[in-house]
Design brief:
Helix content of chain B: 25-40%
Oligomer: heterodimer
Number of helices of chain B: 9
Radius of gyration of chain B: 19 Å
Structural class of chain B: alpha/beta
CATH class of one domain in chain A: Mainly Alpha
Order of helices and strands of chain A: HHHHHHHH
CATH architecture of one domain in chain A: Orthogonal Bundle
Strand content of chain B: 25-35%
Order of helices and strands of chain B: EEEHEEEEHEHHHEHEHEEHH
CATH class of one domain in chain B: Mainly Alpha
Helix content of chain A: over 70%
Largest sheet of chain A: none
Distance between the termini of chain A: 56 Å
Shape of chain A: flat
Strand order of the largest sheet of chain B: 8-9-10-3-11-12
Largest sheet of chain B: 6 strands, mixed
Radius of gyration of chain A: 21 Å
CATH superfamily of one domain in chain A: MetI-like
Number of strands of chain A: 0
Strand content of chain A: under 5%
Distance between the termini of chain B: 30 Å
Chain lengths: 218, 264
């Protein structure tokens, strides 16, 4: 039976940590893309203008119905044939960001639908324009109940980053595989990666809960 | 008191028709409201009373007819060569700005205090400076008797208090016409009085034109300049309060008024 080699684990820690920064960076950047793009997609989907709502719906449904892996493969290996070439990291961030934007758009849509129609009528009666109406009246009411699902998606994105190793993004899982394949000792790197994800998921979930509580107190 | 009948009407409905599928809710409605006039609209439920206010507030569209506010059409604007073309957003917003509405379910912004509710639209729509808006909001809230409730959230206010904030909020936009859509129907009887009192105060002090859909017959009788009895999407009968309440001519009007009397 192989015992856990602590010295070895300590030895490979720096490499894993630097790759973990990539994982974190991709997750956070991707999440920012997802929550911003997702909001526009949700508003577009709910729009009364058919030329906006139909294409938006199509895009959302298409991206939600295909695996992330296939999407990033397509972006990284197929698009260069048509002149669009990006680095693996760029593809990774954009790919995961857009993918989750479509899921988050549906979460926003639920939140927006839950705002009582009466609020929209009040906004019209006060002659408020759409930008101010969304920013000051509708979104603050729409966002509060959907913070838990948004937090879930943040954690889900974090755990989906290893998918990007398929397009050579050196995130923490890829790094662990590289280290393991050099020394043929996989136990330590994989265990440490597992611990990394566990710790980070717990920390993120805790932070999201803190944010929910803070906004509830208002 | 309203101005002379020859003055241009502030609000004008000409043959306005609105349908929901097969149901005609407003049926070739004609109504002229003079500046400063207080009109009470009474009638059975489903007769289209609220719809009248809602189409005026542009919450719903109309299928036929013309609505004019202060001489300008709500749905059309002058285009090239003097022809009427469908109004663009800017025109609609400009005309809509002359109308204010208070709803049955108050519709206050729950995540803002009373004061914030009242300053929100003036600051962001009228472009008022926040300090000026705050001062004006404070005056309005004092006017409706809520001087001590500036920092309360709607959830901390009673129904009557919320409705009074809603009135202050609508007034803050300086409308020429105020629409009241059954504003006391959702209130406990003992809270109606405070809201009706505020409306009475407004009517006395300002030359505000008011259209009120109400079930409060007593209030309509003593406050309104004109009472319109609505039935099946049309004004079945209209006249001064004493004409309608004491000498109704139409059968349906009599039936409705006696039914209301029964209920009370």
């Amino acid at each position: 039976m192989n015992l856990f080699d602590w010295q070895y684990a300590w030895h490979i820690m720096p490499q894993l940590l630097s790759a973990s920064l990539n994982t974190l960076g991709i997750t956070l950047l991707g999440f920012v893309i997802a929550i911003v793009l997702g909001l526009f997609m949700a508003i577009g989907r709910r729009s009364k203008r058919v030329w906006l709502s139909w294409p938006t719906t199509l895009v959302i449904e298409f991206i939600r119905s295909t695996p992330l892996l296939i999407q990033v493969y397509f972006l990284y290996y197929v698009l260069p044939n048509y002149g669009v070439s990006m680095t693996a990291m760029q593809v990774g961030v954009i790919g995961i960001g857009v993918h989750y934007a479509c899921y988050i758009a549906e979460v926003y849509r639920g939140g927006l639908d839950a705002v009582p129609r009466a609020q929209w009528e009040a906004v019209t009666a006060l002659n408020m324009g759409p930008y101010i109406a969304y920013r000051n009246i509708i979104l603050p009411q729409a966002l509060r109940p959907i913070l838990p699902p948004l937090g879930n998606y943040l954690v889900a994105m974090l755990k989906d980053t290893p998918v990007l190793s398929a397009i050579t993004v050196v995130e923490i899982m890829q790094q662990a595989k590289n280290i393991g394949s050099e020394t043929f000792r996989y136990l330590e790197p994989i265990t440490m990666v597992g611990l990394f994800f566990l710790t980070l998921s717990i920390v993120l979930a805790y932070l999201v809960r803190r944010l929910e509580l803070r906004l509830e107190l208002r | 008191m309203p101005l002379s009948p020859t003055a241009q009407p502030l609000v004008s409905f000409k043959d306005v028709t609105k349908r929901y599928g097969n149901l005609t809710v407003l049926d070739k409605l004609n109504l002229q409201v003079a500046p400063g006039e207080k009109v009470a609209i009474i009638g059975p439920s489903g007769s289209g009373k609220s719809t009248l206010l809602r189409v005026l507030m542009t919450l719903e569209g109309i299928d036929e007819g013309l609505i004019e506010v202060d001489g300008e059409s709500l749905t059309h604007m002058p285009g090239r060569g003097g022809l009427l073309v469908p109004a663009n957003d800017r025109h609609v917003r400009r005309v809509r700005g002359k109308i204010g509405m208070v709803f049955q379910s108050f519709n206050l912004f729950p995540h803002m205090t009373a004061l914030q509710n009242v300053i929100e639209a003036p600051v962001h729509v009228l472009g008022m400076k926040p300090a000026e808006a705050r001062e004006r909001a404070a005056d309005l809230l004092e006017l409706v008797g809520l001087g001590s409730k500036f920092d309360h959230y709607p959830s901390q206010l009673s129904g009557g208090q919320q409705q009074r904030v809603a009135i202050a909020r609508a007034l803050a936009m300086r409308p020429k016409v105020m629409l009241f859509d059954e504003v006391t129907s959702a209130l406990d009887p003992e809270l109606c009085g405070e809201v009706l009192g505020v409306i009475r105060k407004l009517g006395a002090a300002h030359s505000l034109t008011m259209l009120m859909v109400t079930h409060q017959m007593g209030f309509a009788r003593e406050f309104a300049d004109r009472v319109c009895f609505f039935y099946k999407g049309q004004i079945h009968e209209q006249g001064t309060p004493s004409q309608i309440f004491e000498n109704p001519r139409e059968e349906r009007t009599c039936a409705f008024l006696s039914a209301v009397k029964e209920a009370n």
